[in-house]
């Protein structure tokens, strides 16, 4: 080997091939040095490609001269180009068919009541998801006969059907007519779930591609299950089960052959076969009979079955909404919906467990019976209070220029009370008005049936009505008569004391007239219902129920800006030193202010905050209920008192399950194993522990409850005394009075109610919590309490029950309390070592009781309402 060979091999030793074997290389020293540079590898690789290509071309040149070879090469290249173009136009960007393995159709959320019965649903599409095995085989054959009889034979595309569809499309180009589909069931699933319903040849080709892919991923049964659960069949029904309910009010397992055949013809166009229209009814019968004939041709039914089914009428029921009563729950179910949306979102885009697509199952403590009692009691109370005040005006207005039928139906304004209906004034003359209803029907409102005085003008209501006004009417013979929706409103909540479960909630007269929930959204001054928590702070800081508090004038320095403020009790009189119990029972404001001042308002507002009522500043005004809170919060706070000071949260939902039954809320939920056993197995019974933390001393909570029992027995809520059972509670009346309250209950259940205008104004000087709110509470809760045992309030460990003189608070020996409404001697609850040490003899009790009775009678003669006092004082700021 010469020097040139060694130089070449030195430069390219890795090649293993000496460069002298390639005589076309110029192996000069300059060439070798140039190739030794870093770009050597890249340049030599390019050269080799060029050499390889030229060599390949040289080898193909003899074949290219042959005609047959050129045609094969051009054809192969054309196929590659066509495939590339096809992929770019049709297949690129198509969704993965494998995603259908995890597809979950949008399902409504169902709410169950305390008994486990479904009572409400949140849905925008009526759909029920079933498994393939849930559908009767004959129903499946009906759909195959009508839609795709070769479904189990093809691989996603029916070639003869596709060719026929292409020919039909070509003949109708430019005519404006839509060509027949020719799609298989697999293609329809691809269209509905993956690519949409765009009308174009491109979409049809994409359908075919996806259908072919789907057949390689899903079984035939899985594809049919998707189809039968997803297909739209009219009447807002998606899926065959929903359609069976919508058209025949049956489940799929209960359908007859002629009903199956009718449902099988609907996918092609439900609007064409509407049984409500004569034309649609005729088309439906004709097409149904055709489907039965196809089933017979395919050998899936006998001739006798076909003839019998064809002789049947359609048998559809009238169109109706959801199978759930939309009126059930009202404000309660709307509040559940709000809270579910906060937890899981509203639409499918918000997550897999959204309210309107996630298929949630919600177990709630909602009790239909208690809800009906609560709703009726509050409505009747509002009507009773509003009676005689005249017509409050139209409930709303609509734009008549846009068509009153459509506008009224779209308003969703309705009322559910004693046969009342919402109507629109269509036209009016001097003698009568033509009114229209949401179903399109009309009626007549005579002028004589609308003579209530209009509150704003004093003139008859009929004269104030204008076309477009929405009013409430009731049937009056052949015509209609005007009814008035109370302008005053209110809210009521019923809650269990041991768990916080809300059994009923009413947030106004009717949630379809106003969705504003006054039980949870209306911030109102609680008035004297706050006082038990003021006294709870005092009991935690050295006072006892027998502590003497002066019921007399009180002056407070409110700072340099406000100066000194002196308060008086009602008309200026006072009862002098009295026990704390007496001050709560008689709702004495000055005693409450004095107790709060002695205790310290910082301690008072901490107690109020700990009970979940509100976060207030340490001003004395809040001791008389000047802060704002809701009915729900107040009821929950009273429930915590009855629960011996243990924390509760108002529960409108016990737990939430996803569509597969897994509990997804609350996060730490655990099932109670063995709680539903038919018979006791001899093992220890399940025991539930306390959920919340202790937010108030249990002895303090019991003392407050024990004192508040006196409010029912001889205080401001004696209207409830005739129930003759252990009850506690407190009335409330705010400045104006703008709101009247009552909150209270038994050891097991607590309820609260308030009445007031949405735009706060005076209810009238006679309005008081004991006169207005307490009777509503009584009407709602009496039937509920009658189903419960008369359980006394249980004192916690450490409480000492001591006999005392009711008026003086002194300890009494030798005398037992009686069942009289106002006994001289009562049992009082004390914490250890806090009971009175002094005592009086029983012969002194009678004399003191007589003197106290004289004082009490004098006070009652001079006493005005709490609202009068607050009004005189301009509040207590």
TrEMBL record:
Its EC number is 2.4.99.28, 3.4.16.4. Residues 490-781 form the Penicillin-binding protein transpeptidase domain. Residues 856-877 are annotated as: Disordered. InterPro entries: Beta-lactam/transpept-like (IPR012338), Glyco_trans_51 (IPR001264), Glycosyltr_51/Transpeptidase (IPR050396), Lysozyme-like_dom_sf (IPR023346), PBP_transglycosylase (IPR036950), PCB_OB (IPR031376), PCN-bd_Tpept (IPR001460). It comes from Sphingobium fuliginis (strain ATCC 27551). This is Penicillin-binding protein 1A. Keywords: Antibiotic resistance, Carboxypeptidase, Cell inner membrane, Cell membrane, Cell shape, Cell wall biogenesis/degradation, Glycosyltransferase, Hydrolase, Membrane, Multifunctional enzyme, Peptidoglycan synthesis, Protease, Signal-anchor, Transferase, Transmembrane, Transmembrane helix. Residues 391-488 form the Penicillin-binding protein OB-like domain. It is a single-pass type II membrane protein. Pathway: Cell wall biogenesis; peptidoglycan biosynthesis.
């Amino acid at each position: 080997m010469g020097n040139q060979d060694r130089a070449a091999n030195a430069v390219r030793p890795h090649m293993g091939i000496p460069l002298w074997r390639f005589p076309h290389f110029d192996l000069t020293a300059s060439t070798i040095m140039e190739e030794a540079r870093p770009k050597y590898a890249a340049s030599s690789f390019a050269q080799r490609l060029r050499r390889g290509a030229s060599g390949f071309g040289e080898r193909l040149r003899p074949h290219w001269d042959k005609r047959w070879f050129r045609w094969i090469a051009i054809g192969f290249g054309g196929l590659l180009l066509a495939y590339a173009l096809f992929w770019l136009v049709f297949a690129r960007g198509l969704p993965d068919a494998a995603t259908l393995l995890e597809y979950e159709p949008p399902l409504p959320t169902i709410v169950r009541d305390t008994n486990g019965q479904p009572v409400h649903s949140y849905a925008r599409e009526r759909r029920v998801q079933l498994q393939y095995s849930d559908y009767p085989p004959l129903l499946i054959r009906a759909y195959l006969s009508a839609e795709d009889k070769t479904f189990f034979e093809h691989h996603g595309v029916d070639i003869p059907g596709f060719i026929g569809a292409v020919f039909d499309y070509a003949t109708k180009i430019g005519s404006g007519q839509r060509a027949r589909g020719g799609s298989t069931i697999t293609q329809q699933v691809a269209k509905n779930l993956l690519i949409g319903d765009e009308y174009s040849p491109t979409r049809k080709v994409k359908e075919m591609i996806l259908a072919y892919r789907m057949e390689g991923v899903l079984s035939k049964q899985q594809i049919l299950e998707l189809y039968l659960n997803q297909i739209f069949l009219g009447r807002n029904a998606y899926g065959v089960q929903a359609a069976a309910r919508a058209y025949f009010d049956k489940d799929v397992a209960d359908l007859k052959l002629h009903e199956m055949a009718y449902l099988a013809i609907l996918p092609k166009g439900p609007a064409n076969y509407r049984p409500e229209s004569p034309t649609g009814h005729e088309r439906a019968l004709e097409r149904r009979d055709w489907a039965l004939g196809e089933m017979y041709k395919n050998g899936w039914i006998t001739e006798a079955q076909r003839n019998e089914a064809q002789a049947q009428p359609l048998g559809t029921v009238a169109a109706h909404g959801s199978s759930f009563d939309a009126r059930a729950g009202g404000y309660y179910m709307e509040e559940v919906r709000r809270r579910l949306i906060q937890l899981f979102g509203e639409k499918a885009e918000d997550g897999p467990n959204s309210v309107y697509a996630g298929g949630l199952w919600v177990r709630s403590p909602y009790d239909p019976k208690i809800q009906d009692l609560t709703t009726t009691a509050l409505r009747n109370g509002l009507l009773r209070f509003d009676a005689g005040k005249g017509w409050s005006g139209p409930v709303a207005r609509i734009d008549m220029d846009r068509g009153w039928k459509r506008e009224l139906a779209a308003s969703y304004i309705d009322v559910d009370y004693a046969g009342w209906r919402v109507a629109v004034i269509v036209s009016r003359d001097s003698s009568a008005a033509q009114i229209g209803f949401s179903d399109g029907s009309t009626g007549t409102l005579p002028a004589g049936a609308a003579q209530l005085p209009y509150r704003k003008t004093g003139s008859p209501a009929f004269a104030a009505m204008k076309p477009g006004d929405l009013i409430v009417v009731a049937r009056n013979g052949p015509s209609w008569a005007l009814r008035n929706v109370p302008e005053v409103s209110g809210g009521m909540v019923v809650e269990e004391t041991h768990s916080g479960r809300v059994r009923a909630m009413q947030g106004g007269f009717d949630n379809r007239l106003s969705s504003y929930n006054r039980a949870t959204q209306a911030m109102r001054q609680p008035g004297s219902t706050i006082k038990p928590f003021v006294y709870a702070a005092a009991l935690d800081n050295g006072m006892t129920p027998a502590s003497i508090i002066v019921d007399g004038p009180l002056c407070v320095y409110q700072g340099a800006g406000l100066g000194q403020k002196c308060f008086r009790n009602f008309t200026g009189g006072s009862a002098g030193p009295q026990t704390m119990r007496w001050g709560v029972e008689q709702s004495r404001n000055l005693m409450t202010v004095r107790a709060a001042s002695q205790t310290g308002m910082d301690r008072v507002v901490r107690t109020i905050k700990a009970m979940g009522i509100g976060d207030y500043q340490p001003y004395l005004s809040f001791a008389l209920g000047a802060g704002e809170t809701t009915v729900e919060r107040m009821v929950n706070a009273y429930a915590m008192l009855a629960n011996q000071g243990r924390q509760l949260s108002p529960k409108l939902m016990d737990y939430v399950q996803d569509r597969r039954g897994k509990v997804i809320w609350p996060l730490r939920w655990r099932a109670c194993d063995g709680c539903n056993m038919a018979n006791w197995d001899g093992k220890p019974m399940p025991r539930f522990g306390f959920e919340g933390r202790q937010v108030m001393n249990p002895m303090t909570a019991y003392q407050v409850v024990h004192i508040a029992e006196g409010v029912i027995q001889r205080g401001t809520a004696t209207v409830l005394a005739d129930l003759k059972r252990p009850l506690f509670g407190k009335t409330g009346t705010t400045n104006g009075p703008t709101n009247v309250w009552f909150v209270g209950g038994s050891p097991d259940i607590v309820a609260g109610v308030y009445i007031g205008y949405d735009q706060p104004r005076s209810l009238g000087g006679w309005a008081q919590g004991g006169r207005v709110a307490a009777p509503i509470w009584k009407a709602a809760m009496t039937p509920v309490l009658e189903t419960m045992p008369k359980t006394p309030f249980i004192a916690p460990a450490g409480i000492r029950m001591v006999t005392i003189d009711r008026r003086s608070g002194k300890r009494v020996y030798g005398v037992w309390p009686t069942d009289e409404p106002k006994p001289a001697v009562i049992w009082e609850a004390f914490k250890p070592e806090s009971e009175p040490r002094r005592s009086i003899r029983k012969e002194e009790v009678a004399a003191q009781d007589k003197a106290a009775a004289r004082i009490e009678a004098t006070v009652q003669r001079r006493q005005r309402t709490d609202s009068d006092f607050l009004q005189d004082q301009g509040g207590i700021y």
